Amino acid sequence: MGAAEPVVERESERREEEGKEEEGNERKEEGGDVEKGEVLGVQEKVIDSSNFDVNNNLNNQFGGSHAAMMQRLNPTTPLRIVIGGSSRMPTPSPSQTALPRSAPIPQPSQTTLNSRRYTNKISLFLFVVHMVAAVGLVSFLIFKGIQGLIEASESVKRKERRIVKFYLPQVETASLLSITLAFIWQKAVRQWPRTMVPFILWSSFFSSLSAGILLICFQRASTDGVGICLIAFAIGNGLYACWVTQRIGFCTEILIKSLEPVPKFGDLNQPTYWMLGVGFLWMSLWILAVIGAMNFYFTPLVIIVLVLSLAWTAEVMRNIVNLTVSRVIALYYLRGMQSIPQNCFQRAFTQNLGSACLGSLFVPTIEALRIVARGLNLLEGEDEFMFSCAHCCLNVMQSIFRYGNGWAFVQIATYGKGFVQASQDTWQLFVRQGMESIVDSDITSSICFLTGVCSGSICVIVVAAWTARVHQTFTATLSLLSFFIGYLMTRIAMAVPHACVSCYYVCYAENPSNILFDKTIQDHQSMMADRGVAAATPRVPRRFSA
């Protein structure tokens, strides 16, 4: 019996080892089920290892398979089961445990579309000071005019009554007529762009020529001077229309494409209505101030100051509309957003007003000087002095143009940049895409300008014919005022198509692969490149030719 006991113990130990191996195999099979998320029929159940204690009697009663499967749980991950002292998943590194799983991954910073800062605050301050001074001057001159009608001598009263009688009706008529023409031009350009582009080029020529001839027919020195200026402009306008004939097709295609998003925004024209209404009221008060200035000291100087003030104010109004439309259309191109024009108008009237003031002051001046420099560049020839001056002026204006151009209003409205920074960034986009020659040859701004000229010429014809019958002495002065008013009002309304075209160019330069853009610009770039290669022969002065 004593000799048989070691054998029995060895057999019992062997059976226990076999039982452990079978239990290990069962644990491996059931561990695979645990990895599939099925632990005792309950998914994602967190079990605390400190509350889990297995009695040896359960191993005997249930075969020890289920109880031995989960002896302890890894505290770092609730669903990680540790079997037999070894985890089936690797232990997380200290860097992983230090960063919570809910921590967001840092993203690279992007240019915000909702900048709340005010741009170009110095320009905004100067414009506010200018408006306060302008309101004060206009109020004072209106007071002086009313005082002249009531308290002055009989001779002064007669002069005041004559001015009011023969000035005010014609100028108010010119204002209403210009507003009507502004909406007609804008509606026609939006409805029939293919027809209106050449029509505007030649109608401005004929209207300005007709107005000049009409004024010369009055045979007065003042009207002859104004008429000659209009005829000279008409000649230049006709030459320009002949020169840009080859650009009309591409300009029309871009205009058609850029106006496609406009019907998606039903109230996009609402800022234009507001600006034209405010402009009409301000011009009515401005005319009364001009009448009052005629009985005040330094009359020519005061009228020049009033004209410059009105020009800056009207240009700011136009660029407010430009910024509003630019933000609506640019967000549609870049982000696919349908913004509310009223909110964009509020932003343009507050946060971006400083940039509108600065751009209104410098863009017309820079563009005018650039046109003069181009004209001088056309005069280059055998005269070395003219050759050097022309190229020097053109290079200077090209450098200045990079720091201040009308294309900047798109990025001002979209990203809230300052005027100079937006001008530089926009031009860099054009350079990067090789679009400098395309945007430089665009005639949309010229079309909008000639639309204002056409409206001004029509106002001159109506007002001059009316004034010549009632009081011919005032014909020249009223002709100039009516032309000025008609031009400014029409330019405010034409800011809508101009802004749409600017957004098309700038947004294309920023993202040419956008599905909203076709291959119009790309095909035109290829055509211009082929034409440039074909015409790459350098210019040789005649005295060096064979």
Automatic annotation (TrEMBL):
<keyword id="KW-1133">Transmembrane helix</keyword>
<feature type="region of interest" description="Disordered">
    <location>
        <begin position="86"/>
        <end position="112"/>
    </location>
</feature>
<feature type="transmembrane region" description="Helical">
    <location>
        <begin position="472"/>
        <end position="489"/>
    </location>
</feature>
<feature type="transmembrane region" description="Helical">
    <location>
        <begin position="296"/>
        <end position="314"/>
    </location>
</feature>
<feature type="transmembrane region" description="Helical">
    <location>
        <begin position="447"/>
        <end position="466"/>
    </location>
</feature>
<feature type="transmembrane region" description="Helical">
    <location>
        <begin position="225"/>
        <end position="246"/>
    </location>
</feature>
<keyword id="KW-0812">Transmembrane</keyword>
<dbReference type="InterPro" id="IPR007603">
    <property type="entry name" value="Choline_transptr-like"/>
</dbReference>
<keyword id="KW-0472">Membrane</keyword>
<feature type="region of interest" description="Disordered">
    <location>
        <begin position="1"/>
        <end position="39"/>
    </location>
</feature>
<dbReference type="GO" id="GO:0022857">
    <property type="term" value="F:transmembrane transporter activity"/>
</dbReference>
<comment type="similarity">
    <text>Belongs to the CTL (choline transporter-like) family.</text>
</comment>
<feature type="compositionally biased region" description="Polar residues">
    <location>
        <begin position="88"/>
        <end position="99"/>
    </location>
</feature>
<feature type="transmembrane region" description="Helical">
    <location>
        <begin position="164"/>
        <end position="185"/>
    </location>
</feature>
<dbReference type="GO" id="GO:0005886">
    <property type="term" value="C:plasma membrane"/>
</dbReference>
<feature type="transmembrane region" description="Helical">
    <location>
        <begin position="197"/>
        <end position="218"/>
    </location>
</feature>
<protein>
    <recommendedName>
        <fullName>Choline transporter-like protein</fullName>
    </recommendedName>
</protein>
<dbReference type="Pfam" id="PF04515">
    <property type="entry name" value="Choline_transpo"/>
</dbReference>
<feature type="compositionally biased region" description="Basic and acidic residues">
    <location>
        <begin position="7"/>
        <end position="18"/>
    </location>
</feature>
<feature type="compositionally biased region" description="Basic and acidic residues">
    <location>
        <begin position="25"/>
        <end position="38"/>
    </location>
</feature>
<feature type="transmembrane region" description="Helical">
    <location>
        <begin position="122"/>
        <end position="143"/>
    </location>
</feature>
<comment type="function">
    <text>Choline transporter.</text>
</comment>
